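Posting for a labmate who doesn't have an account.
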Amino acid sequence: MDQAKDQLVADMPGAVGPESPGCLTGTPEALPERIARAYVDRMERADGDDPFIALIRSAASDERAATALYRAMRERSLAAYGPLVTGPDADERVDLLGAHLIGVTFSRYVIGTGPLSKMTPESLVRHLARTLSSILEV
């Protein structure tokens, strides 16, 4: 991994995942809405410079870098959401959450074509909250 990618991984703990301080507080039932809003707000401000985008772009050129970024993101998500997402398959559902958001990131913020890329941020939050609610089973 080159020095810039090493630094990105090192900088990730404060930036990885959709969680923000307010995202993790509140009722479990509202968690999907909070995650969706935090993710969309962050991605709309990212201007192409975000760990999710770096993960997707590095996957094509540097599998080792992509794996390191993914692991850091996964560990951060499990630590953040572990206490909130419960049940025997909680880790699997948190992984599905990450996979879903990576797919949205690819479609909307990397490729930038199709209906997903044309949605208003509010519409994206609404759709994401609905799908995340199903994934997280809250």
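Reply:
Got it, the structure tokens are right above this. Residues 90-111 form the longest helix (22 residues).
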